[in-house]
Amino acid sequence: MSDYRIHGATGDWEVVIGLEVHAQVTSKAKLFSGAATAFGAEPNTQVSLVDAAMPGMLPVPNRECIRQAVRTGMAIDAAINKWSRFDRKNYFYADLPQGYQISQLYHPLVGEGRIEIALDEKNPDAGTKAIGVERIHVEQDAGKLMHDQHPTRSYVDLNRSGVALMEIVSKPDMRSPAEAGAYVRKLRTILRYVGSCDGNMEEGSMRADVNVSVRKPGEPFGTRTETKNVNSVRFVMAAIEYEAQRQVDVLESGGTIVQETRLFDPDKGVTRSMRSKEDAHDYRYFPDPDLLPLELDDAFLEECRASLPELPDAKRTRYEAELGLSPYNAAVLTAEAETARWFEALLAAGGDKVTAKAASNWVISDLFGALNRIGKDIESSPVTPAQGAELLRLIADGTISNTLGKQVFEIMLETGEGAEAIVEARGLKQTSDTGAIEAEIAKVLAANEDKVADYRGGKDKLFGFFVGQTMKAMAGKANPGIVNELLKKALNG
């Protein structure tokens, strides 16, 4: 249960949140036509006669779009409706050539499901919360109005017209901006694992309508507002925070909340009124006369289920149980499908010498730190999984120390060379020559007789100083294990 509250003059208020996420279906063609769906194409270059609503054009459902929506439903343990139907949602807008949108109001493709979110994504021990999903229905997108191309006119780009969307409607189960942010991130992760949407919110292929109301804890739901087309997790959270506070201020000053559609201004961090909220009857929904109902057979459903990958929650559980990873490491490595794939390729290339624990720690600290510094994601990493495995093998077998490993990794990032080639060319091999190490230890102890006396007098923490001095004298190339062993012998002898 979230303890997030807005502290008003009349007491505490609870926030009630539901999200309608529009996710663009991964498909090379649109929902009812064969037109392309590539992002960033020149305006009006991906428009068929169906998308432009030319007279006599009839829609034909794209099987792949239906398949992807079904697979998404299965991934969130939702009910799949073998019989569903398309409806016409009638409204006029300049970017909607048909004068209606083909959607699914009364009989959606996917029924109730659930998404498990972490209550604290940085602390896996904080527990989880199940957020209910009411439905997933399939619908076509509208086009796009372009207001910045001319001082007095707006232009219409119909490239997006007819693109397949999944509208994923949550139940009003979220009680804080943080829970809403965790829900959107988890949903995006699932979509990317399944491959049904790329989740690129900055490109508009995933956007959220944010429903917010407030109430005194324990009271019935209040009147909600809907903030449309919010296109980042951060903005979703900011819109909720602002809108909830606005509603509390209105109610505490004696006003009432109007059920309306609002827009979020990311530059100012505020929501503003757009139009009064419509009800279903305002759109005059009725079954689309050009489309037969969808009827799914068992073979199709079995094929959809068989095509699902291992999903993030199952993968995280396996990483903990089979690989012995900590809950935190397992959660970080499974948060994105690309990260999990990279990590598994690293393990496969590492063989028996590279442990899962060592590999996970290296990916999360060294690799992620470097990628963050150079502004790249794991898919564009200059170091491949095979190269990473080669480096970890050299550390595991004692060829180089952890400290030298960090130096070698930096050179790998800059040059793209393999770890073995770098170690050979630059003479970075770790030495386990006990004679050479003992000689340096003798010099260090002779130069620090006062500290030797202090150590032998009970100041055990000085041991680290002697290790550091010895490693420095040997340019970091001494085997740390042997240095420790020989130092103990020399100091305690």
What would you note in describing this structure?
The protein is α+β, with helices and mostly antiparallel strands and 493 residues long. The chain has three domains: 19-213 and 275-304, no CATH class; 310-426, no CATH class; 434-492, Arc Repressor Mutant, subunit A (Orthogonal Bundle). 39% of the residues lie in helices and 19% in strands. It has 15 helices and 16 strands. It has helices spanning 63-75, 177-194, 233-252, 298-306, 312-323, 327-334, 337-350, 356-374, 385-396, 402-415, 419-426, 434-447, 449-456, 463-473, 480-492; strands at residues 6-8, 11-24, 83-84, 87-90, 100-103, 113-118, 128-140, 144-146, 155-157, 164-170, 206-215, 225-230, 260-265, 270-276, 286-287, 294-295. Strands 1, 2, 6, 7, 10, 11, 12, 13 and 14 form a nine-stranded mixed beta sheet that branches. The chain is elongated. The termini are far apart. Belongs to the GatB/GatE family. GatB subfamily. It is an enzyme of class 6 (ligase). This is Aspartyl/glutamyl-tRNA(Asn/Gln) amidotransferase subunit B. It catalyses: L-aspartyl-tRNA(Asn) + L-glutamine + ATP + H2O = L-asparaginyl-tRNA(Asn) + L-glutamate + ADP + phosphate + 2 H(+); L-glutamyl-tRNA(Gln) + L-glutamine + ATP + H2O = L-glutaminyl-tRNA(Gln) + L-glutamate + ADP + phosphate + H(+). It comes from Sphingomonas spermidinifaciens.
What is the strand and helix layout of this fold?
Elements: E1 6-8, E2 11-24, H1 63-75, E3 83-84, E4 87-90, E5 100-103, E6 113-118, E7 128-140, E8 144-146, E9 155-157, E10 164-170, H2 177-194, E11 206-215, E12 225-230, H3 233-252, E13 260-265, E14 270-276, E15 286-287, E16 294-295, H4 298-306, H5 312-323, H6 327-334, H7 337-350, H8 356-374, H9 385-396, H10 402-415, H11 419-426, H12 434-447, H13 449-456, H14 463-473, H15 480-492
Parallel strand pairs: 12-13
Antiparallel strand pairs: 1-2, 2-10, 2-11, 3-16, 4-5, 4-15, 6-7, 7-10, 8-9, 11-12, 13-14
Helix pairs in contact: 1-4, 2-3, 5-6, 7-9, 9-10, 12-14, 12-15, 14-15
